[in-house]
Write a structure and sequence with these properties.
Elements lengths: L4 H7 L8 E2 H9 L5 H14 L3 E4 L2 E3 L2 E3 L2 E3 L3 H9 L4 E4 H7 L10 E5 L6 E4 L2 E5 L6 H14 L9 H13 L3 H10 L4 H13 L21 H13 L3
Parallel strand pairs: 7-9
Antiparallel strand pairs: 1-3, 2-3, 4-5, 6-7, 8-9
Helix pairs in contact: 6-8, 6-9
């Protein structure tokens, strides 16, 4: 059966293995030209004929063919689809590794992205979470900081010396405007915000984080003195 030419022309703008989010493509370019039912039926037919490959629910790519058959999108290509042009950033263990906080790795890569429609999508070993932010450098740095602090107790084999060095960089790059924008888009634990306040106060960085916390609550988070002692022991152990 023939492809609908409207859909064919829209898909022709994509490169091989470039991820195609079906709902996004339809809303942005095709909603006024073809019914949604006909659109998805065309995608189905193209998959059946081999002209299109479905990689996850609602996500496709034009096949890249080698002499060994179809070459699926690489992890890098999948991540790029949700992080390019300030649409997202990698978090989780890939982030912790890049900051030298641990040598542990994970079988999955976690991404935050505004390019995703829906709350979560899994594509092979990449898990994408929808977060409505424009990931500028300031926003990205602040997201990284909040993610590290929120998950601090779960980071396996953490390098305390590297973490202390990171807290200083985090304090230097702190942006109140970026922080406010992030917490309005994604909820973080009060203990995480209290942990950030502890770090900023230690490095004498002015902040208004008290406005996000209750004076009647005691939040559990690592104190800087404890972290310095942990770093001393970590260094002495030769880890």
């Amino acid at each position: 059966m023939k492809r609908n030419p409207v859909v064919k022309n829209a898909l022709a703008e994509f490169k091989e293995n470039e991820l195609i989010v079906a709902s996004k493509l339809y809303k942005e370019k095709l909603a006024s030209q073809i019914s949604e039912a006909a659109y998805y039926k065309t995608l189905q037919r193209m998959c059946e004929s081999g002209g299109l490959v479905k990689i996850a629910k609602g996500t496709y790519h034009l096949p890249k063919i080698s002499k060994y058959g179809i070459v699926p999108p690489s992890e890098k290509e999948i991540i790029s689809a949700f992080t390019e042009n300030e649409t997202g950033t990698v978090v989780g263990y890939s982030l912790y590794n890049s900051l030298n906080l641990t040598t542990q790795i994970s079988k999955t890569v976690t991404v935050m992205s505004s390019a995703l429609e829906g709350l979560t999508k899994s594509i092979r070993n990449v898990i994408v979470h929808q977060v409505p932010l424009e990931f500028s450098k300031e926003i990205t740095n602040m997201v990284h900081g909040l993610e590290v602090l929120q998950n601090f107790n779960e980071i396996e084999d953490i390098n305390y010396s590297a973490f202390l060095a990171y807290t200083e960089r985090l304090a230097e790059s702190f942006s109140a405007a970026a922080f406010e924008e992030i917490v309005s888009a994604k909820a973080y634990k009060k203990s995480t915000i209290a942990f950030l306040r502890e770090i900023l106060n230690y490095y004498k960085v002015k902040n208004n984080l008290n406005g996000h916390l209750s004076t009647l609550s005691e939040y559990k988070y690592p104190k800087m003195e404890e972290l310095h002692e942990a770093a001393r022991i970590y260094k002495a152990s030769g880890s």
